[in-house]
Amino acid sequence: MPPRESRTSRPGPSITDVARHVGLSQQTVSRVANGASNVRPETRDRVLAAMTELGYVPNQAARALRSGTFASIGLIAHRLSRTGESRIAEAVVDGARDVGYTVTLVDVEEPDDERVADAARRLTNQAVDGLIILRAEGTPPEFLFPARIPVVVADSRPSPHYTTVTVDDFGGGALAVDHLLGLGHRTVHHVGGPADSVPGLLRERGWRAALTAAGAPVPAVVRGDWTARSGLEVGTRLAQDPTVTAVWCANDEMAAGVMLSLHRAGRRVPHDVSVVGFDGIELAEVLYPPLTTVNLDFDAVGRHLVAALLAQIPGAPGSGGDEVPPRNQVLPVGLLERESTAPPPLR
């Protein structure tokens, strides 16, 4: 009877094989495999090319044993079709890549306690070092995520349990109102976001507070759902009111819809009605006329989320090794003045 063929697979190439192939030290190859930044670009390219040629795959489990980290972040998101969520998620991925970390994404249908907790459990079972959660609006600030894993949340509500990163939504609303009142408008109408959106409600409160502080009338809020189509629908109603001379929208896409509705009604922007948006997306710059908007730096939000999480992970880039207490980081916004605002028409 012929001897049975061994079914034991041949071990794959090792880091020693890669080092020998490129004529470099194992330490240099290890730095490339671990995503270290202290490697010359041309050296990194040579090592990565050799890894591909030889079929070498870094052993993440062994790496975790050596460094104490998996170099992986879990990201829980909701409605990535929305501009804000997708831009911040992209910035998180970019920020993680810059320090040699990967990102595993879970998109939840609704950001409530049960779904977010389930997503967190799934991610922590996939060997991640920490969690970043975008828009946990259905999760109360006192909600506790899985123990012993660092968490950072993009949330406007401070929490005693984890670090939050957000932008100054309230201040942005006030900034838009102050700009329009400063041009001479008697009041500012507001196209708000959904009533269950925490950032949208904070922007609305800033709008209301600024009008009240100036002694200006506070019109009723009309609401959209963040889409340009909803802006077109509510803008059609606003365009029929001859007393409306200034409109501030809670995001740029709704502002684009409002501007189209005003155009269709024969009301010129900014000669008859001034319009301001919020977010500072690329679309705003190429509208006609270019949209004045409150600028939100999505890239900065993503970078701060990654940095705040890494600071809590022992052995990660930027970590001091000490326990980091929860804190609420509020990033500033600014006004980009373009051609969609002007003094009100003479009556």
TrEMBL record:
Gene3D superfamilies: 3.40.50.2300, lambda repressor-like DNA-binding domains. This is LacI family transcriptional regulator. Keywords: DNA-binding, Transcription, Transcription regulation. It holds the Pfam family Peripla_BP_3. The keyword Isomerase does not apply. One of its GO terms (molecular function) is transcription cis-regulatory region binding. CDD domains: HTH_LacI, PBP1_LacI. The lineage of its organism: Bacteria, Bacillati, Actinomycetota, Actinomycetes, Micrococcales. Residues 316-347 are annotated as: Disordered. Residues 13-67 form the HTH lacI-type domain. It comes from Serinibacter salmoneus.
